[in-house]
Each structure stands twice: as C-alpha cells, then as structure tokens.
Amino acid sequence: MAGRNPERGKTVTTVLGRRLGGELLRMREVCGMRQPQAAEALTASVTKVAKIERGQVPLRDPDVRALCHLYGQTDETAIGKLLALAKADRDRRKARGWWNQYPQLAAMVEYVALEDIATSIRTWEIAFVPGLLQTPDYARAVAVGAGSWEDPSEIEPFVDARLTRQARLRSERPLELWAVIHEGALRQLVGGRAVMREQLGHLLEVAALDTVRIQVVPFLAGANPGMTGAFSIVSFSEPGALDVVHMDVPSSTLWLESEEDAARHGRVFERIARVGLAERNALELIETIRKEM
To answer: Where are the beta strands (DSSP E) in the chain?
Structure first.
C-alpha cells in the first residue's frame, strides 16, 4: 500500500519511488555495500539513503547515475530504465492533483495519480466494464450496487471523478488503453437493459479511437489464464519497460511493484488476449449483445 497521504509531499512513499528504491537497494546488497558508502557517493546523509530505498523521496538523475556507478552498473539500457523510472516518479509527485477535490477517491488516489502520468494501461476485467470505459449511468449503477456508501450524496462526485479520468483517452497526450473484458461483464444487467444498451454502444464508440483496443473473452473460451482475478498493468514508457501491476482485493488495493511481478502479469495478459476474440469479432459480439438488450 502507498503511504498514508500520497499528496502530502516529497517525504511520502509512492509506488514508483518504492519500485526505484527497491531496485537500488537490491543493487547495493548484491555488491556488498552499506548505506554509509552510498551516502558518501551522494554527499548526503544515511537517513536520506534510507528514504531513497524506501521510496520516500524523489531522486535526481545525477544521483541515480552516481549510485549506478558506485554499484558497478555499467549497462546503459539498465541505467536508462532507472532514469526513466526516476523521472516518472518526479512527474507523479508534481502532478496537478485534480483528484484531491474528490474525497470519494481516497482509496484510489495512488492509482488515479499514476493513471494521470501513464503512457498506457492494459486491463483485464471479469465482472465490470473498465472504469475508463464506463458511462455515467453505468458508473452510478455500479456505485449503488456496491452498497459501500454511507452517504448516497457521495456517489455523484464519484461518477464525476470517473468521467474526469476518462478525459485522458481524448487528450493531447492520449492514454493508450488495451482492455480485455470477459463476456459475463457485458451481459450483467448493471442498471437495467437501457443502461446496458447505452454502455455497450459507448464501448463501440470508444473503440473507434486509435489509442483504444477492446477485446472480449467469450464464454465459449472456457477456462482461461485470467480466471483468478482482474488486474491492470500501468506503463510509463514502452509496455514492459516500466510497469507496475494494480489489483483490487476485498479489503484493500494491492500493488505489485517488482520487475518480475510486472513481467509475469504481462505474460498472463498476453495469454488472456490470445484466447479472446480478435478486435473486429469482439465488437461484433458487443453489438449482438447490445441488440439483445
């Protein structure tokens, strides 16, 4: 989980900061060095090195290079990944933070903040239409159905925030979205037939965007690699280079931050996509379901 308040400032842990700090910690331990040696190379305190390795502070490019040199890392490709990760973390910390005006997003603040600076997202959904593709009525019906709102008046701001997130799909730097959705999510009567007809029509409309790709895993596909749960892979460069994995579980939000976890989920996503319908056939199925509604 992220720190208590990801928006307080530079001393708070972030997903990307932890990813970068964890990699630097691993490199230091592999070469047998201790934190005081790293602190000396940075002309900094041991406390700062500890904060870097916990992902609590942003890291400048010269400091990344200094630590790589100290730890014997000479591969420019590997160093480049760390530099890109450091930049993404700095961008995350400086992001404009429109989400702060929506207390209803408290549980999702880190995900929304990363989504705001991401270059692409690959998402696999079993039960819902992905949030970035939901219509207002569908999002409202999902919120009502969840039954987790103590104050019903909070639902409308939640819906507004979801629509604000969707602006990235049509912005000057559009987010690339590859959504694979199980057929069951498209047939579930969320909000009733009229709401679902509108929602499925919206999917067909958004699929026309050059940066959006929608696939469907049909019931006929049978068992598939994604049956254990939904997840999203958030990328900040070319997919596979700087990825983190996001999963929602009943009690919390789970982040998988290691390169190994991201690569493993990337392979799972590819296998799910392979059993899914080709994009043209997926859109034909969506249209068929819409007509049935």
So the answer is: 120-125, 176-182, 212-217, 231-235, 243-249, 252-256
Global pTM value? 0.79
Task: Determine the residue type at 237.
Answer: S
Write the CATH number of the domain with boundaries 15-94. Answer: 1.10.260.40
Mean pLDDT of 68-75: 94
- Per residue in 32-52, pLDDT (tens digit) is 999 999 999 999 999 999 999
CATH architecture of the domain 99-292 equals: 2-Layer Sandwich (3.30)
* 3-state percent breakdown (helix, strand, coil) of the chain, nearest 5: 55, 10, 30
pLDDT for the residue 252: 63
Residue 206 has pLDDT above 90, yes or no: yes
CA atoms within 13 A on the CB side of 240: 5
The residues of the chain that CATH labels 3.30.870 are 99-292
